[in-house]
Amino acid sequence: MNWEKVWSGKMWVAEQSTQSDGRIFERVLRAPGSRILIVKNGKLLLTREKRGELDGAVDYRLPGGKVFDTNEAFQAYVESSKDIVDASRDSISKEAVEEAGIIVESSKLSYLGVDVLGATVSWDLHYWLATEFEMHEAGAQFHESEADEIEGSIWLALGEVATLVLNQKQFSESRSAMMITRYINGSLGV
């Protein structure tokens, strides 16, 4: 299928493909993101964030963010034939420090896998596990935009997290809720 770019923004690209019967298929592509499960002594670290897409409501989240700042940077990386998992590994180590004040060497991360959103919307989320880490003495090292968004972090027992992620008013990112549930249930093979 031949895809033609019809619109491009900072993080998203919209493409169309005309089929032999005249139908037009569309898809949007976004640079991937990463999330990290930070676990110690049977507890998982979650951040508390004011989310714009939730009209400023506070939501619990896994620390994480974008692997690339722009879709152009992502496309250049893909064209270089480098492994996207390596880029995700490097970016999530930075996100852990920025959002939660956790210092984790990228070599000590365990890859849990990727959640692929779908065929018409491509936005992969790569998931990592950290069980060996240090706390940054000054805490989270927010970017300016994150300082207004992230209200802090909390350690919760895995049983509490299992209940929390099922409450969409407290934990709205369903893709991460599913990955956390799989981790807690031992179905990730970690």
In total, the number of strands is 13
SS strand fraction = 35-45%
Query: Secondary-structure element order, as H and E?
Result: EEEEEEEHHEEEEEHEHH
Low-confidence residue ranges: none
Inertia-based shape: globular
What is the structure about, briefly put?
This protein is an alpha+beta fold and about 190 residues long.
What does this structure look like?
It is a single chain. This protein has helices spanning 71-79, 84-100, 144-147, 158-164, 174-184, and strands at residues 4-8, 12-18, 24-30, 33-40, 43-51, 57-61, 64-66, 102-103, 110-115, 121-122, 125-130, 134-135, 150-157. The radius of gyration is 18 Å and the shape is globular. 27% of the residues are buried. The protein starts with a strand and ends in a 6-residue tail after the last helix. The strands form three sheets. Strands 4, 5, 6, 7, 9, 11 and 13 form a seven-stranded mixed β-sheet that branches. A four-stranded mixed β-sheet has the order 1-2-3-10, with no helix packed on it. By secondary structure, it is an alpha+beta fold. α4 (158-164) packs antiparallel against α5.
Core attributes:
single chain, 190 residues, alpha+beta, four-stranded mixed β-sheet, 5 helices
